[in-house]
């Protein structure tokens, strides 16, 4: 809408009114009084609309301006237009801020903004989760009072933010957080915090894996080297000693070969890009075959094995991987139960599932070891695997093979009483032909 009262028109109207009042007063003989009256009317008229505007500003809840006439109509209209533009800009700004908040909350990292003094200005929800912040109660609090790690305080005070810093979460949940500080706007700084617990764990596992493989290969190689050096001068050895040396070299070679084969199998099982074959597997037959294959080992270890097997119980999965699961669980029980121990194997249908259980009366395992039994190369005792010829990979293979079949290994053990390893798989048949086996 165009302005009705231009400055020139307003001056013209005022001047004409002044001339009219003066002329009328001159005709009636009271020019000064009429001029004063005209000015008084102008003051009252302007004061009325000014008070009306003031009342609207401070008391009225209406967004529409009151009615006015004359130049005040233009003033009211100008205020209304200004208010409308301000309201539109405020809505746009609010929408922009809302989108910013949504984007900030969607970040995979925790985000904080601090001022030049280190006082907290803003944080997203992940920052509150990772760093234990309480928003908005912590607004204005110095970041060094919120993150009290000595290494972070030193890092922040040095003001050298070229490299990130990693520290444990102040929440005490053992989460490792990587913090990176960068300039934001003016004298403000943006802090991004990322949960690197899994990455750090993988790095430690990689280093431990390399160290363990190096150790496992170095030990048999050292033994083989010693015997081969003796065999370089066979005349100094009795025939029985030569035979013993060759047997030990062969045994160590077989041990290394077994470890390499298990490492390759573990690598295949852990590969997320490899689909698990869905073939019918009669695991009862696998158990029978393994017991036959291990008969001499069972006899030499002097353990007593009994089994209760549903021979027709069938599951879907990988024959190779399920064979590896049962083989490793069975050989572990035979090797580590001890002389005279009893081993009980069960493969039965329970509550719509195919349930496998192997229980022994061996020495058992201390509680502090149970959570780590399925780690690669983990040993309950330092010389346990070396005495038994194990590679320390068996239970890791079992764990990952079962996970590939959407199952889980359950371990129960009591020191001095024995151990029980079990898992369940979906069965695909309901026929039942059971057999009982006794092996001594």
Automatic annotation (TrEMBL):
Q: Which InterPro entries did the record assign?
A: BphY/WalK/GraS-like, HATPase_C_sf, HATPase_dom, His_kinase_dom, HisK_dim/P_dom, HisK_dim/P_sf, PAS, PAS-like_dom_sf
Alphabetized Pfam families for the sequence:
HATPase_c, HisKA, PAS, PhoR
Where found, per UniProt?
Cell membrane
Q: Name one GO cellular component term.
A: plasma membrane
Q: Which domain of life is it from?
A: Bacteria
GO MF, one example? phosphoprotein phosphatase activity
What is the E.C. number? 2.7.13.3
Reaction(s) catalysed (UniProt annotation): ATP + protein L-histidine = ADP + protein N-phospho-L-histidine
EC supergroup of this enzyme: transferase
Q: What UniProt keywords apply to this chain's record, in alphabetical order?
A: ATP-binding, Cell membrane, Kinase, Membrane, Nucleotide-binding, Phosphate transport, Phosphoprotein, Transferase, Transmembrane, Transmembrane helix, Transport, Two-component regulatory system
TM region(s), chain numbering? 7-28, 34-51
Q: What function does the entry list?
A: Member of the two-component regulatory system PhoR/PhoB involved in the phosphate regulon genes expression. PhoR may function as a membrane-associated protein kinase that phosphorylates PhoB in response to environmental signals.
* NCBIfam families, A to Z: phoR_proteo, PRK11006.1
Name this protein carries in UniProt = Phosphate regulon sensor protein PhoR
Chain's gene name: phoR
